[in-house]
Amino acid sequence: MAEQKQWVLLTGASGGFGIEFAIQLEQLGYNLILHGRDKARMQLTYAALQSPDNHMCMQADLSSRKEVEAFIDKLTALNMIGLVNNAGFGVWGVFAAKESVAQADVIRVDLLAPVMLAHALLPCLIRNHGFMINVSSLAAETPLPYLATYAAVKAGLTFWSEALRAEHQGEVRVVTLAPGPSPTGFRDVSGAPKGKGNMVSTPASKIISASLQTLAVGGGYCVPGWRHKLLWCIQKITPRFISLALMANYLKK
Ligand SMILES: NC(=O)c1ccc[n+]([C@@H]2O[C@H](COP(=O)([O-])OP(=O)(O)OC[C@H]3O[C@@H](n4cnc5c(N)ncnc54)[C@H](OP(=O)(O)O)[C@@H]3O)[C@@H](O)[C@H]2O)c1
Question: Is any ligand 1 atom within 6 A of the Cβ of residue 88?
Fold first, then answer.
């Protein structure tokens, strides 16, 4: 009997990190399911691959429970070896002034969807000794005024991902990726003011290769590149009342 093709689901394949993940995962020999909402931008990622015929595209709005459930139905019929929970966005600004639906969608897309996808796919990932990469953020390490919901959700994602890493030690390799600022579509989508975080900005290619190096050594918590490592160290040694005051001042529009 012919061996069933193994697939890696990459959510948010139409965005900055997604394109890099697609290119670098293909170089490692994986067959990819490229996910996104924007068909035209997904097509750009697809076209950037060496052997597009080895991969496929799937659309789903991860803020919609119905669409996530339909997406999961399609995925559970496939032989999955990897899950990259990369899709995500934030809403920048004074919490009370921003639409509540958008705030709730940050929770649905950045946390609820990864939890639902992982729960559905883990049995297959375990059978295939596969892997999971959860794209969190250094925003998870400090409460962030003006990005309050995003930072809270990423803190949840980091804790969840790290707990799964321990639960599935020896079965599934789990990487919790915690980057700082990077030049992708994230700022435009979140409405962030230009210039914030530029000093520590790191190219997406470096961030993704660092996460795949962590995967190659069995998984782990990955803060990519020296700039983001430095930022992480500063976050760790700064008392919360100081970091809150500094971030409230820095992140204000
Ligand atoms: N860039 C940074 O500075 C930075 C730093 C730390 C962590 N991160 C994290 O990195 C991940 C990737 O973001 P990025 O920086 O590459 O930003 P990006 O260029 O804006 O890409 C975001 C991706 O998420 C997808 N997405 C957003 N909302 C969605 C929804 N409702 N349903 C389905 N897909 C949705 C987008 O797909 P469509 O456009 O097709 O809808 C897109 O492919 C996110 O989880 C983000 O939080 C980014």
Answer: yes
For every residue of 152-185, DSSP letters joined together read HHHHHHHHHHHHHHHHTTTTSEEEEE-----SST
Domain 6-251: CATH architecture, name and number where available = 3-Layer(aba) Sandwich (3.40)
Classify residue 115 as left (phi > 0), alpha (psi -120 to 50) or beta.
alpha
Give the distance (Å) from ligand 1 centre to CA of residue 221.
20
Ligand 1 near 225 CB (within 6 A): no
Residue carrying structure tokens 């669409």 = 67
Tell me if 182 CB under 6 Å of ligand 1: yes
| Pocket lining: 111 vs ligand 1, CB cutoff 6 Å | no
Per-residue pLDDT tens over the stretch 77-100: 999 999 999 999 999 999 999 999
pTM given for the model: 0.97
Q: What is the DSSP letter of 124?
A: H
